[in-house]
Amino acid sequence: MNHHSELIRVAVFGSTGSIGIQTLDVIRQYPERFKITVLTAYENADLLIRQAKEFEPDLVVIGREEKYHQVKDALINIETIVAAGVKALEHAAEMGVYDIMIAAIVGYAGLRPTMKAVEKGKKIGLANKETLVVAGELITRMAKISGSEILPVDSEHSAIFQCLEGEKLNNIEKLILTASGGPFRGKKKYDLERIGPADALKHPNWDMGAKVTIDSASLMNKGLEMIEAKWLFDVRPDQIEAVVHPQSIIHSMVQFEDGCIKAQMGVPDMRLPIQYALSYPERLAGKLPRFDFDCSSQLSFEKIDTDTFPNFLLAKDALYRGGNIPCVLNAANEVAVAAFLLQNVGFLQMSDVIGHTMSVMPFMEQLSLDDYIECDQEARQIAASLVKKRTVINI
Ligand SMILES: NC(=O)C1=CN([C@@H]2O[C@H](COP(=O)(O)OP(=O)(O)OC[C@H]3O[C@@H](n4cnc5c(N)ncnc54)[C@H](OP(=O)(O)O)[C@@H]3O)[C@@H](O)[C@H]2O)C=CC1
Ligand SMILES: CC(=O)[C@@H](O)[C@H](O)COP(=O)(O)O
Ligand SMILES: [Mn+2]
């Protein structure tokens, strides 16, 4: 049992999402250790209000400005300050009222608040992988200057981070990310011609938000995670591999230059990597579920089927090309996933939209924040025009 006199003040950006809710679950278990001081949501005012009444943070921010009065009126009897709007999210990230941000906003929307926190030298538990995919070079450079510590929450990266404890980074031969293979593992392209959002939203091992679940089904998630790994662990693209491991018990591995492979294992439960980021460098004793060797007969591995899941190759191409290409990939993917969820494009067409957008955007090497913003917008426009026209482009 650890005895701490000072409570760690936690800001949960995206508290109403899957990671946000699980972060609050962890914090509920350790009231002597953590105190929630900031909660943010986008649309879900009802849940944000319930969370604020329970945790009484210093500040809540609702992204949608039109929901300000609903939240403000509901919290009239507690001392929590209520703010609204996208700029308020950024201001909240800059405030001195928290020690660690759990960055759990989904997608590109998480970039600016996270960047503000990095600029301020905050400690960050990073779930929002898109931030590093889009602007990993800028974010990691900023973090070095400000002293911001970025701790991975994404399960694979948390696994790698744990495998690297006590190791020298220059002894790494390669990082091996595990992929569940998603709900369509073993399927071929013709099997996927008619599948819809309901099929793709059935992840075999994890219960997550819609966007990352679709990315898992298309294997884009693993590609995004390779880019995320490059920035988190400062390795070359050729040092990052991915392998299908359908049971999601080994969360990832590191192979060192003597040939030794270290793996981190556990049941698929995001509360563990969330808790580890919050408590690092300590581990907290607790009751999270344990892996049962009596019930689990095998751990297996397969090659990724890149013919069926070309999104993985598109992301790998972006990893190797660098510059603005991962930003383009991410923007086009966000447009494609949103269109797929609305049934405006088919599952396989998502790769056409992303591949075409990547092929027409000019390459840029070094980007400022404004360059990234412009690049993101331009790529979104191109991708959206393909979606609207329901264009099928063979890549
Ligand atoms: N879920 C998981 O198990 C894992 C998730 N991740 C990553 O973590 C991040 C969060 O994922 P997940 O929790 O599944 O996502 P969810 O969709 O469940 O939650 C997203 C959160 O972001 C908020 N949000 C959405 N859009 C905006 C916006 N434009 N501006 C500000 N806030 C916004 C939502 O608010 P509201 O609901 O109020 O609209 C919600 O709080 C993603 O980057 C994902 O890839 C990584 C590993 C595992
Ligand atoms: C839980 C987590 O970290 C997700 O990113 C998960 O990895 C998705 O599973 P896939 O391996 O299917 O992409
Ligand atoms: Mn992951």
UniProtKB/TrEMBL annotation:
Enzyme Commission number(s): 1.1.1.267
Superkingdom of origin: Bacteria
Residue sites binding Mn(2+) per the record: 154, 156, 225
Pfam family, one: DXP_redisom_C
UniProt domain 1-deoxy-D-xylulose 5-phosphate reductoisomerase C-terminal: residue ranges: 150-233
Keywords of the record: Isomerase, Isoprene biosynthesis, Magnesium, Manganese, Metal-binding, NADP, Oxidoreductase
Necessary cofactors: Mg(2+); Mn(2+)
EC top class named in words: oxidoreductase
Gene3D superfamilies to which the protein is assigned, alphabetical: 1.10.1740.10, NAD(P)-binding Rossmann-like Domain (3.40.50.720)
Domain (DXP reductoisomerase C-terminal): residue spans on this chain: 265-381
Transmembrane spans: none
Catalytic activity: 2-C-methyl-D-erythritol 4-phosphate + NADP(+) = 1-deoxy-D-xylulose 5-phosphate + NADPH + H(+)
Entry's Gene Ontology BP terms: isopentenyl diphosphate biosynthetic process, methylerythritol 4-phosphate pathway involved in terpenoid biosynthetic process
Binding sites annotated in the UniProt record for 1-deoxy-D-xylulose 5-phosphate: 129, 155-156, 180, 203, 216, 221-222, 225
Annotated ranges, domain 1-deoxy-D-xylulose 5-phosphate reductoisomerase N-terminal: 10-136
Function noted in UniProt: Catalyzes the NADPH-dependent rearrangement and reduction of 1-deoxy-D-xylulose-5-phosphate (DXP) to 2-C-methyl-D-erythritol 4-phosphate (MEP).
Family: Belongs to the DXR family.
Entry protein name: 1-deoxy-D-xylulose 5-phosphate reductoisomerase
Originating organism: Pedobacter caeni
